[in-house]
């Protein structure tokens, strides 16, 4: 797929790249774009639009890891506009962002968009389903010198509207006809109770303490389900589009670094997120469409690995049409052993890239001042104004005591353990006691 994309994107003006979640689409379009950039040109040469801020940040990180020498910036809702405007005062060669925020910067004239020759619309169908058509149409109308348009999606049902100007489109379709992968096992879990909370608890207890992604259809259900699991002693976090950006990032960081093993989410996490390979995907609420069912399941059984998707249904609930009658039924009623608690806890640090902190600084500080061994430190993520580090829970208390009055690179930062449970924004009525 990446080889074909390299050739086609380089040679053709308009390309539609279709490939499953987790197959490496980001590199597939970034590598040929790198070859198109010109060092002598000033200003933004390539604009990449994504439906979510997380996908925008992920794409930025992939570009930075390529060490191209070309500047990149990312703009998205929830991020400081003043910081973005300051970053854009020295224009990047590659600008990544969500449609609403990029439209805002174009209207503010935060950057010169007249030299943009390459436009990439990543997860384009998702952008349309989220209602970004007006913003994308506005942006395309403003880009008068476009030479290349690249549309990227994980679903073959994508349609390119006329306003996109994609004449003579070359399609690369690497989505198998049977989009539900052979490596994926499907299991049906029947609940005696309509709310299915007890059944979800028993199912999680049967997973041998292995991580799982749990999908609900609504934001309120996501938070309520997380609270129900917490009441039963399961450490979990939630994630949905209505959360503050800092809270969203914190949930994903904790899930990535193993501080929590169970993330309850909407379909926002079905694609475009940098989260670990999952062995288990749980449909607490069955998805409304087969496409979304496929995208949810794309979080497991990636790249020849195996995985299992579990669909929870009340005994009177109609089986979704995309679920075969022969799907195996799994009994979880006898599973009551709580999962083992996470080995790591996430440490919050009140400084980041803008404070000139990096991963090496944090590792050195935790090792020297906190007296942690290499195996006591897990994944470290450095944001603009804050950082997160996974620290072995058994060493956390003594380490915090040692560093209480210590400085990192000559400055005192606030350093504390984050809660493993999201702070509730509003109360929800309990489904069950």
Which structural class is indicated by helix and strand composition? Answer: alpha/beta
pLDDT averaged residue by residue = 89
- Unreliable stretches (pLDDT < 50, length at least 5) are 420-433
Distance between the termini: 51 Å
Q: Radius of gyration, Cα only, in angstroms?
A: 23 Å
Number of helices: 13
Strand order of the largest sheet: 3-4-2-5-6-1-7
- Reported by name, the CATH topology of the largest domain is Rossmann fold
Strand content: 15-25%
What does this structure look like?
The protein is α/β, with parallel strands linked by helices. It folds into three domains: 172 residues, P-loop containing nucleotide triphosphate hydrolases (Rossmann fold, 3-Layer(aba) Sandwich); 146 residues, Rossmann fold (3-Layer(aba) Sandwich), CATH 3.40.50; 74 residues, 2-Layer Sandwich (Alpha-Beta Plaits). The strands form three sheets. Strands 3-4-2-5-6-1-7 form a seven-stranded parallel β-sheet, sandwiched between helices. A seven-stranded parallel β-sheet has the order 10-11-9-12-13-8-14, sandwiched between helices. Strands 16-17-15-18 form a four-stranded antiparallel β-sheet, sandwiched between helices. The termini are far apart. The C terminus is likely disordered.
Quick recap of the structure?
The protein is an alpha/beta fold. Helices cover 30% and strands 20% of the residues.
Task: Provide the descriptors you would attach to this structure in a database record.
globular, alpha/beta, Alpha-Beta Plaits, 433 residues, 18 strands, 3 domains, disordered C terminus, Rossmann fold, single chain, seven-stranded parallel beta sheet
């Amino acid at each position: 797929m990446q080889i074909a994309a390299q050739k086609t994107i380089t040679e053709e003006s308009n390309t539609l790249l279709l490939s499953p979640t987790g197959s490496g689409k980001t590199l597939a379009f970034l590598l040929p774009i790198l070859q198109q950039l010109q060092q002598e040109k000033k200003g933004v040469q390539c604009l990449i639009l994504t439906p979510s801020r997380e996908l925008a940040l992920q794409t930025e990180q992939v570009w930075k890891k390529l060490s191209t020498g070309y500047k990149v910036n990312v703009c998205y809702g929830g991020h400081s506009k003043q910081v973005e405007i300051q970053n854009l005062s020295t224009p990047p060669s590659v600008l990544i962002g969500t449609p609403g925020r990029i439209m805002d910067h174009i209207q503010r004239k935060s950057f010169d968009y007249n030299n943009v020759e390459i436009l990439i619309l990543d997860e384009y169908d998702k952008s349309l389903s989220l209602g970004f058509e007006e913003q994308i149409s506005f942006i395309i109308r403003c880009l008068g010198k476009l030479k290349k348009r690249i549309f990227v999606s994980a679903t073959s049902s994508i349609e390119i509207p006329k306003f996109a100007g994609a004449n003579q489109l070359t399609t690369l379709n690497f989505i198998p006809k049977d989009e539900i992968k052979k490596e994926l096992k499907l299991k049906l879990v029947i609940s005696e109770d309509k709310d299915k909370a007890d059944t979800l608890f028993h199912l999680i207890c049967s997973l041998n303490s292995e991580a799982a992604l749990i999908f609900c259809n609504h934001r309120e259900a996501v938070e309520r389900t997380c609270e129900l699991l917490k009441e039963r002693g399961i450490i979990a976090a939630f994630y949905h589009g209505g959360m503050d950006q800092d809270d969203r990032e914190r949930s994903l960081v904790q899930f990535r670094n193993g501080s929590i093993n169970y993330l309850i989410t909407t379909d926002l996490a079905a694609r475009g997120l940098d989260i670990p390979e999952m062995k288990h995907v749980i449909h607490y609420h069955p998805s409304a469409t087969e496409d979304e069912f496929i995208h949810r399941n794309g979080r497991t059984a990636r790249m020849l690995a195996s995985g299992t998707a579990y669909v929870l249904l009340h005994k009177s609930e109609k089986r979704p049409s995309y679920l075969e009658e022969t799907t195996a039924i799994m009994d979880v009623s006898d599973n009551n052993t709580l999962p083992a608690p996470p080995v790591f806890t996430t440490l919050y640090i009140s400084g980041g890239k803008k404070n000139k902190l990096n991963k090496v600084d944090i590792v050195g500080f935790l090792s020297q001042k906190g007296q942690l061994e290499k195996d006591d430190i897990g994944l470290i993520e450095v944001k603009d104004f804050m950082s997160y580090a996974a620290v072995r829970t058994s060493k956390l208390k003594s380490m915090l005591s040692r560093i209480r009055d210590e400085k990192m690179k000559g400055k005192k930062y606030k350093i504390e353990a984050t809660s493993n449970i999201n702070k509730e924004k509003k109360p929800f009525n309990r489904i069950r006691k």
